[in-house]
Amino acid sequence: MRRRTPPPPAPLPQRDGVDPVRVRLPAGGAWATVGEHLVARLSGAGPGVIEAMFAAGRIVGADGRAVPADAPYRPGMFVWFHRELPAEVPVPFPLPVVYRDEHIVVADKPHFLATTPRGGHVTQTALARLRHDLGIPTLSAAHRLDRLTAGLVLFTVRPEERGAYQTLFGERRVAKEYEAVAPYDAALALPRTVRSRILKERGVQAAREIEGEPNAETRVELAERRGALGRYRLLPRTGQTHQLRVHLNALGVPILGDPLYPRVLPPVPAGDFRRPLQLLARRLEFTDPVTGSEHAFTSGRALLAWSSYPRWAAD
User: Fold this and answer.
1) Are 216 and 246 a contacting pair, CB within 8 Å?
2) Other CB atoms closer than 10 Å to residue 87's CB: what's the count?
3) How many angstroms separate the CA atoms of 129 and 123, rounded?
């Protein structure tokens, strides 16, 4: 099998921890110039936006020089540019680093901060903030947490080592422990292992359980009870989207602050950081695939609804 030639390194530096956009001109098509192709391909940017970027010299080739709009179209050519970033409300919570060496960074992500750029969350992501704050432009995420979930996230420093750490998660060689606050149900027999088939469809906010061979497994334990609330210890063996939220909801004890389960709620205004989802990635344990070291990390965060329910519930 013929190997695809890797793209050249980006000639533009990151901006606020965000990589420039790379576009490869495809084979075929009837475009005469680079500008003609990009205007058609990036039409969603808005009328005149791409033309203005060409005029300002903001679209560059592999040598870092501005590419003129009338440059002849050449299949396989790469161009780079920085897109206009959306206005984002800053997530006003710290992002502490709990461990760092020459191979990995482990951060304790707050609620409301996305792990990696996606959609309207670009600079206000753990990855962009860490790249900027630590001065590590090569930093990448080895896995992801939902934006609304707090806790430990593993990042890799060297691009050539990222696959080894991602494989740990893919092969279930990372022991993960979560904590959640949800209603207490005396009739719910715990501990138990929940197995089901979870389907998350593109464009649909909430995942759902369907018939079929299980693809999701979670050990659920009651760690502590306090009146009408329970603090649950969750040990997932798999990593389906929203798995822990779906499984606790199916048990009749949906996690406090969940805007999707048991029902999808209207979106809250940007900057509303009240009532965070009470789900925390508490521990990560694994054998380092590069150094062979045994790692065990614990989040320093506490779930607010457990430590002070009145504060969490206050308007």
Assistant:
1) yes
2) 8
3) 7
